[in-house]
Write a structure and sequence with these properties.
Layout (H helix, E strand, L loop, with lengths): L3 E6 L5 E8 L5 E6 L2 H16 L13 H10 L6 H19 L9 H13 L4 H20 L26 H10 L4 H10 L3 H5 L6 E2 L4 E4 L2 E5 L2 E5 L7 E4 L5 H8 L19 H15 L7 H14 L4 H8 L4 H8 L4 H27 L32 H6 L1
Antiparallel strand pairs: 1-2, 2-3, 4-5, 5-8, 6-7
Helix pairs in contact: 2-3, 2-5, 3-5, 4-5, 6-7, 6-10, 7-11, 12-13
Family: Belongs to the 'phage' integrase family.
Protein name: Site-specific recombinase XerD
GO molecular function, one term: DNA binding
Length: 406
């Protein structure tokens, strides 16, 4: 794998330096330089990459980012339609205008960091900047695995912090007033606020997945609007779950089931079509919010409200996680950690009470010991002639106090 450098005379009399080496397959690579030091640096970099097994064929990195992004996106078979649309939008709006004409091998770490900083300076939200960087990093990861570039230049780039907005929680009274203002769709608001379903999960709920006897909802499907089309798929975490159905919703939902087949949607528009978030919010939810005098309330806030009401009713973190369909209890705590502050206060109070009880029991045990009981082998004052300080090793010598009394 060792290379060589040779000096060559050109037709105009100048000297050029040709550096050459062979790759693991035996194929020869060469490049010519005006200075010998440049030829040596290029050869050393290639040799180092060969030794560390990070070498890639130069021609494989000549693919442009635009061509590679199209190939990468078409290979993402596990994406939900909404995620695919989001990735395509980020590529079109943020990544390809800057990187589309660059070859994969020409993308540098410092340039990616500069691009992130400039995108943030243009006024885009930190979350959008992080998402755009993630898509660029993902397609460069595939280029590394495909042997087109030795490493991912987008890794370890400083990213802006994303501050999470405080969740908005409604009270039970606000939920009921909002449901009353929504008219015939009041049961939809109550269902979202008391079960924590995502809107797409609620819209895709079918009659056969409602168990009125056990008061359970089986969440196995979700619907999302993508490019104006209703696209059905699995829930967000790809996991089916069971959600408790409050008794106050049994009568209204059973009326919704009247005359429907098992595979029909439980909740629909007045014309019987699938509910779409944008239309439902514009026609039903936002007017109801204004009618009751609330501000800055979104349909997703009903999901937050369900978590708040569940915790107030004594639900554990694990129970809230299962109800909401979060991937882990850690995610539930990340979003709703403030709801469990009262639990921490109660826990501290119970621990203090237990500690005081243990201390009282220990003091009582000490006072309950008999005064005459002595541990075996312990020396007493009676055997050795008087209190501490008046003892002597000579039993014939009395203490001063006894001498005075005699």
């Amino acid at each position: 794998m060792a290379g060589s450098i040779a000096a060559l005379k050109t037709s105009d009399g100048t000297t050029r330096y040709r550096a050459r080496y062979r790759d693991p397959s035996g194929r020869q690579h060469e490049r010519r330089f005006a200075r010998k030091i440049d030829a040596r640096r290029w050869l050393e970099e290639a040799t180092s990459a060969l030794v560390t097994h990070t070498w890639t064929a130069p021609e494989r990195g000549r693919v442009t980012v635009a061509v590679w992004a199209e190939q990468w996106l078409s290979a993402q078979v596990g994406l939900k339609p909404s995620s695919r649309q989001r990735y395509a939008s980020l590529l079109r709006a943020h990544i390809l205008p800057t990187w589309g004409a660059h070859r994969l091998a020409d993308v540098r770490h410092a340039d990616v960091a500069t691009w992130v900083a400039r995108t943030l300076e243009c006024g885009f939200a930190p979350a959008t900047v992080r998402q755009a960087h993630r898509v660029l990093s993902l397609l460069l990861d595939l280029a590394v695995r495909d042997g087109r570039i030795p490493r991912n230049p987008a890794q370890r780039v400083p990213l802006p912090r994303v501050t999470r907005d405080e969740p908005r929680f409604l009270t039970r009274d606000e939920v009921e007033r909002l449901a009353d203002a929504a008219g015939e769709d009041g049961d939809i608001i109550r269902l979202l606020a008391y079960t924590g379903l995502r809107f797409g999960e609620m819209a895709a709920l079918r009659v056969r997945r409602v168990d009125f006897l056990r008061r359970r909802l089986t969440i196995a499907e979700s619907v999302t609007e993508v490019a104006g089309q209703a696209v059905f798929g699995t829930p967000k975490t790809h996991q089916q779950r069971t959600v408790p159905l409050p008794e106050l919703l049994v009568d209204t939902l059973s009326q919704r089931c009247a005359g429907k087949h098992r595979d029909d949607f439980l909740l629909t528009t007045s014309s019987g079509t699938v509910l779409r978030l944008r239309n439902w919010r514009r026609l039903v939810f936002d007017p109801a919010v204004r009618a009751v005098g609330l501000t800055d309330v979104t349909p997703h806030d009903l999901r937050h409200t369900a978590a708040s009401l569940a915790v107030a009713s004594g639900a554990s973190v694990k129970a809230v996680q299962r109800m909401l369909g979060h991937a882990s209890a850690a995610m539930t705590l990340d979003v709703y950690s403030g709801l469990f502050d009262d639990d921490l206060s109660d826990l501290a109070a119970r621990m203090d009470a237990a500690a005081r009880e243990a201390a009282s029991a220990r003091v009582g045990a000490v006072w309950a010991q008999p005064s005459s009981g002595q541990a075996p082998g312990r020396k007493t004052a009676a055997r050795h002639g008087g209190p501490r300080g008046d003892r002597t090793h000579n039993p014939r010598i009395k203490s001063p106090l006894l001498c005075q009394l005699s």
